[in-house]
Specification:
- The protein is an alpha+beta fold.
- 53% of the residues lie in helices and 12% in strands.
Amino acid sequence: MSDSQIDMESLSGALRRETVKKNVAAIHISGKLSLLQRKLSNVLLLNAYDALTTAQSHTIDARTLATIVGYNSNDFDTLRASLRALAETVAEWDMLDDKGRQEWGVSSLLSFAKLKNGVCEYAYSPALAQKLHDPKIYALINVHIQRNFSSGHGLALYENCYRFVRTRSTGWWSLETFRKLMGVDGSSYYESFKHLNAKIIKPAVAEVNKSSDIIITPEFQKKGRAVTGIRFVIKSNPQMAMFQIDDSDGMRNLAVYKALRGQGVSDRLARQWITEHGENYVTQKLALMEEQDKITSSVGYLSAALRDDYQPKQTPAKPAPSPEAIEAARRRAQERAAEDAEFAARQAERAGRARRLDLVEELVSRRNPTQRDADKQLFMAGLEDDLERENFRTHGWRSALNASAIIAFWQDMEPESFEDDFGDPTRLDPLGG
């Protein structure tokens, strides 16, 4: 980390130590990874996080891993190559410890990885595991948001900015440090700030702002006319809540997830178990645990039961349920089905709205500047509320408050475009799925 990132000389005493704990510590992962390799690194870390400092190695089903990251589940050659790249990637840290002493360290990102019998086993070096596990030092990246990224530079910038979301600024990086984070430090082409800005900074910033839960704005530090440093101001992206569906939200609505949380299982571990083993399998092990007389640790028992496939002891057949119990079960099943249908409808509605707003942006991009201005004026003339007009001025055709009116407006303007993409527009309301 560059010394210019935070002016340590301006701080003293306890304030200095507290600021170090929250803001200074950082781990720089080499940017020379492909987009899929970077996604793979994040998923492996998420999978291992709860046992990062207690287990010597970690495992995940190889097909599940490939599917989450976006590989073909049978493409083990690509998976092997990506794991090899992670083992050859350097993680470097340069920070102050709790006593104000400088600590520098370097480690391979993975100390080993292997594929055997359809299972991926991997490990981190003990020193790196300690650093990765400290939430003050490293922020886990949301693996659902990372699916939206189509470039490695965009995802690399998101990861390095997201660590500072609470402080709302990355602090100043030298251009040398920034090139290293983006994986272009060995290229003479990007020694030119003009090329770096045009090919790396601007496209990566645009993708972060479009695809993630944060909005970043670059600021530049100059010496004379030359740019010498860069930092990013960070704020949350309010539009993401309207147009992005986080798969974990659906998982958190499952009864099995709530049951796991009730047993003291962490949020991350509960979602990991459901993803790896399936809802029914985890439910079976929960039911099996409830039959035990004495359990010292619910989490420990469930972990062993899932890993070793504990089976219930054979017991005499229970009497058939009464008609009242059958009717109660039927009603519960109906209620669950209704809840599932309602949730699916909400997902379809959000997905449909997002697709139509994507099409709107494409249609707008085809118009010349004069037509775009005329379109905006015509649309705003139909808005009766000051709040709606102000929201449209701020967010344009991505205005969440005016989403329904925007889609209806462009369906009237370009009905053939909506018919080509979504079928007969007369069968769809503006926000339909």
